[in-house]
Amino acid sequence: MADPFDEILGLEEQFYDEGYQQGMTDGIKAGRIEGRTFGLENGFKKYVENGKLHGKSLVWVNRLASLQPSTNSLQKPSGNAASESSDVKSTKLPVLSENTRLAKHVKTLYALAESDTLSTENTEEAVSDFDDRLKRAQAKAKMVERMVGEMEHDPSKILSSNDGSIEDVSVLSARH
Q1: Where is each Essential protein Yae1 N-terminal domain found (predicted)?
Q2: Contact indicator for 141, 109 with CB cutoff of 8 Å
């Protein structure tokens, strides 16, 4: 004759197994959702950073002296009263000095940050290639910034680099 308490004593183990399986299922689902969200956020941040670098490269490429039209070929329109009385001032960025090394760095930065050639596939190789190109583009941008004398002014980077003591005031850039 079967003991009626055998079923009751087995309930704890049965409920434990059911709870464990339900927890594993829920954990896998939540992990996939959290992982996808994390991946999208990080991918977006990287793509924004790449876009900023691409924008900088476009500005620098268009400021290169070798790409500027010669002054002899530029002629002001004459006899056009509308253009002479215009109050609109054209603002032009200064032309970068003629420097073949600078031009090479700017063109390399442009090629590294060009979004048309970047893969957006979610494979290990594509992500690794994207990260590598982004790091190389960041390094090129720093080199060009130093050569041109246009260091990026980001107060959060300056303030986060010191410990807040009075001696660290010298790292802050003065505003004129």
Answers
A1: 19-56
A2: yes
Query: Which residues, other chains included, contact 61 with Cβ-Cβ below 8 Å and sequence gap of 6+?
Result: 67, 106, 107, 110
Query: Whole-model pTM above 0.70?
Result: no
Dist CA 91 CA 100 (whole Å) = 26
Structural tokens at position 162: 């010191």
Q: What is the pLDDT along the chain (176 residues), one digit of tens a residue?
A: 677 777 777 888 899 999 999 999 999 999 999 999 999 999 999 999 999 999 999 999 988 877 666 544 444 444 444 444 455 556 677 888 888 899 999 999 999 999 888 888 889 999 999 999 999 999 999 999 998 888 765 555 544 445 554 554 445 555 54
Cβ distance 147 to 102 under 8 Å? yes
106 within 8 A of 144, measured Cβ to Cβ? yes
3-state DSSP call for residue 65? helix
Q: Scanning the structure block, which residue is given the tokens 């970047």? A: 118
